[in-house]
Design brief:
Layout: H1 3-20, H2 25-38, H3 47-58, H4 63-74, E1 85-92, E2 98-105, H5 108-120, E3 125-126, E4 136-145, H6 150-159, E5 164-167, E6 174-179, H7 184-193, E7 197-207, E8 211-213, H8 216-230, E9 235-240, E10 242-244, H9 246-253
Parallel strand pairs: 8-10
Antiparallel strand pairs: 1-2, 1-3, 2-9, 4-6, 4-7, 5-6
Helix pairs in contact: 2-3, 2-4, 8-9
Length: 254
């Protein structure tokens, strides 16, 4: 299994643990608020909202919290929703690893300042927009959990217009299926219709060329920086182009 699949697995496990502490509920609430504001505040008619709710539920977010976030986005609670702005930041991690950050913030100056400090204290630097985004492509990703029969998944995915898929491994069985942005909803519905357990449907930046990391110290620095960035309140998603072998990744996180 590729290092990136292992890292994706670790991030999902971390989200579940953090959810028990309420740490990720704010992030999911913001995503739901923005999705509800961008279209109709009804998940049946708003794919972006429906996807945000699916991720929140997969992390164990209570229905009451979800309903409040939808109401805020619709402007029907407490005088309306918070004024969140979607911003993308770009930078370099230890050894020149390319990093993309997606944020939802009500104060872009605060968000930029916190990101700049996080990079500088952890062996990286915040760059200008466009400095690394050319290394990534924007794709739709459907995450499946549970046992997957690869030949069957390949058939269903190809029929639904998927571009590729990647199995997640035996420690947490499942798969990630990739497609063009405009085909994401079609793919998600096809996989659900075939009986797969879809736990997340999202847009993600995917690295075209990955940078191999073979030194333990650099791997530790990268993992630390990724965790620091993801723990910032304004940050929704962090993507990087590192490729760390599974054994080295486990050692770096030990």
């Amino acid at each position: 299994m590729a290092g990136h699949s292992k890292w994706a697995n670790i991030k999902r496990q971390k989200a579940v643990v953090d959810a028990k502490k309420g740490k990720v509920f704010t992030k999911y609430s913001r995503e739901i608020i923005v999705a509800a504001r961008s279209g109709v505040p009804d998940p049946a008619g708003n794919f972006q909202l429906r996807s945000a709710i699916e991720k929140a539920k997969a992390a164990g977010m209570p229905n009451d919290n979800i309903d409040r976030a939808i109401a805020k986005g619709a402007g029907t609670q407490n005088g309306g929703g918070d004024d969140y702005e979607a911003i993308r930041y770009e930078g370099y991690g230890p050894g020149g690893v390319a990093i993309l950050i997606e944020a939802l913030t009500d104060n872009r100056n605060r968000a930029a300042a916190e990101l700049r400090v996080a990079f500088s204290k952890n062996g990286g630097n915040l760059g200008e927009i466009g400095c690394v985004s050319w290394m990534f492509s924007h794709q739709g990703v459907v995450t499946l959990s549970g046992a997957v029969e690869e030949e069957e998944l390949l058939e269903v995915s190809l029929e639904a217009g998927a571009a590729s898929y990647e199995l997640l491994g035996d420690d947490e069985p499942g798969a990630e299926v990739f497609t063009e942005v405009g085909n994401l909803e079609v793919l998600s519905q096809a996989l659900k219709g075939s009986g797969y357990n879809v736990t997340a449907t999202e847009l993600r930046w995917v690295a075209g060329n990955e940078m191999a990391v073979t030194e333990l110290d650099q791997a530790k620095q990268i993992i630390k920086l990724m965790n620091v960035l993801e723990d910032l309140d304004d940050v929704q998603n962090v993507t990087a182009n590192f490729d760390i072998a599974e054994e080295l990744l486990e050692e770096a996180m030990a």
